[in-house]
Amino acid sequence: MSFARASIGLIALAASVSASIKTCSNNNTLSCHSSSKAGTCCYNYPGGALLQTQFWDTDPVSGPTDSWTIHGLWPDNCDGTYESNCDESRAYTNITEILKAQDRTDLLSYMEDYWVDINGDSESFWEHEWGKHGTCVNTIKPSCYSNYSPQEEVGDFFQKTVDLFKGLDTYKALSDAGITPDESKTYTLSEIHGKLNQAWYFFNVRGNAITGKYQAADTLTKASCPSSGIKYVPKSN
User: Fold this and answer.
1) Residue 3 — pLDDT band, cuts 50, 70, 90?
2) I need a labelling partner for 38 at 20 to 30 A (CA). Which of 81, 127, 207, 232 fits?
3) Which position among 129, 152, 153, 193 bears the catalytic label?
4) Is 33 tagged catalytic?
């Protein structure tokens, strides 16, 4: 699938994280920038690159007409490969109930608007994203918490993904560059990168995936895109 990438600066987002997650010092090595072959609660490995991915769904339409929607937060092995479904024992199938039990109703409400499944089954979509990708983020394993409460890391994962998404307004960034949805207008590759149905933002992280500092990184994948005739169609019925 084609993708678009935008470069942004250092990100340090305040999030509603669990108080019991272990803290990391300010001089942690940036992920993907060490010869170490081991992960710790303060060093993301092997999934050292984290991708915040977004959708622009038009057939059928999902999410607000003036916003992209969340796909997920994916750990990448710093080379375009990735692990998946890393801990079947934590592949929970009750994300909504977990978030409600953690009193994250505001988060859940936001997800219902901006993290939506194209077929209308958002719960299954969230379960898939957590089981396939969330369980592979080594810095949010239960052992990385003090006084750990079961499933605590699940809420932190979804909160962090939403917080990153809120700071990466793809619709506005494109609009500010004069690139807006249109049924007939096309763009060249020099204007935008890829067919606009998905955007991937690549980061390395200094510290753990929840409280660490995210730094924009170059793309780890290559897309085969036409040089012109690229469409960005509006969401409509």
Assistant:
1) very low
2) 127
3) 129
4) no
